Amino acid sequence: xxxxxxxxxxxxxxxxxxxxxxxxxxxxxxxxxxxxxxxxxxxxxxxxxxxxxxxxxxxxxxxxxxxxxxxxxxxxxxxxxxxxxxxxxxxxxxxxxxxxxxxxxxxxxxxxxxxxxxxxxxxxxxxxxxxxxxxxxxxxxxxxxxxxxxxxxxxxxxxxxxxxxxxxxxxxxxxxxxxxxxxxxxxxxxxxxxxxxxxxxxxxxxxxxxxxxxxxxxxxxxxxxxxxxxxxxxxxxxxxxxxxxxxxxxxxxxxxxxxxxxxxxxxxxxxxxxxxxxxxxxxxxxxxxxxxxxxxxxxxxxxxxxxxxxxxxxxxxxxxxxxxxxxxxxxxxxxxxxxxxxxxxxxxxxxxxxxxxxxxxxxxxxxxxxxxxxxxxxxxxxxxxxxxxxxxxxxxxxxxxxxxxxxxxxxxxxxxxxxxxxxxxxxxxxxxxxxxxxxxxxxxxxxxxxxxxxxxxxxxxxxx
Length: 464
Prior knowledge:
The protein has helices at about 15-25, 40-45, 45-65, 80-105, 160-165, 180-190, 210-225, 280-285, 320-335, 360-370, 385, 415-430, 435, 450-455, and strands at about 5-10, 30-35, 110, 115-120, 120-125, 130-135, 140-145, 160, 175, 195-200, 230, 235-240, 245-250, 255-260, 265, 270-275, 305-310, 345-350, 355-360, 370-380, 395-400, 405-415. The protein is of the alpha/beta class. Strands 1, 2, 3, 4, 5, 6 and 17 form a 7-stranded mixed beta sheet that branches. A 5-stranded parallel beta sheet has the order 8-15-9-10-11. The radius of gyration is 23 Å and the shape is globular.
């Protein structure tokens, strides 16, 4: 029976980061993972492979629409789907093997197999039981079923994001159920590759919870790219054969029933915590009504010595949120002070253009009765963006009316996922819009649009 200071169950972004940090802090550490490769959903069938396909399909778009304008003449490239999937798999392999290297470098033991907790202080993997002073549950999440609908997923015709990343061929018609991050990212991939894509969403807007102005403009841009949308629609059922499917939905405004034909149906209605088989119920671990593990401010459950992080607990289901919690939980176990600022966790949609957001939305500030100012700047006023055919979109900064302190920022445009971090750092230090406005930004860069939005919170932007 092996003995450890910490055993982490799950080697996704939260789990593997927690394991490495524990080892760095001098704790004897092991990580349990049943997949053949480390990295969890994110690296194997989520964030990383989807970004590979987004990049590949965006390059195709550039070749088809912008190369000739730049004087790059020639026959448009054809899509070798098998090779594109091979490229995606190589990206996965490189990243997952990188984690394996980091485990060896930091002397983290990989316990291969699926883990359970027969009692506090013990983790069972296969037939072996290991002792641990502390256990961190980092088992992530799984795709949620379509609520209130008769839908059977086969990962061939009716797929989750997992199946959508390895289809046998590019479908002629794809129906996406859900207009959240996953649905829009993968829907845009297949639209660029030639599919007819229709997105069916229960609500009357896309990207639930996002700033309303961003939602409206993002929807217009996606429609302009050729994606079709049916909003305010409740999916009733999906009837599938081996090669085709029919999606039946009702419009909420008049209860009328409609049917869409598809070669592939992507179910992208969110994710739910995955804790099956851990034995948490028998241990008496408190759970929320939504199936999340309940934790305190130190990521401890009500059972001493058992911690939980990432998608398995409350909060946004984001890899970087899980990573932060993994590091913080490790610090707490080592007797230090772990901290996560949940008010400054960015969210990004990796479409083209990208969408990035942090902090409060305008709707939230109105609801909370906060007096605020808005500073906006369009990318059409940014020389670099116009030079690379990405002048759509804008930066929107929200600041306290009295103090000028930044309360939130919402960006739709080129490189938004990277630009947002200037604001994240600023918010961590309690920065004002004036602090950003008075900071020299290199020219020509996309980041100048962020500075101009900050200037717009004061006397006004220069280039607007």
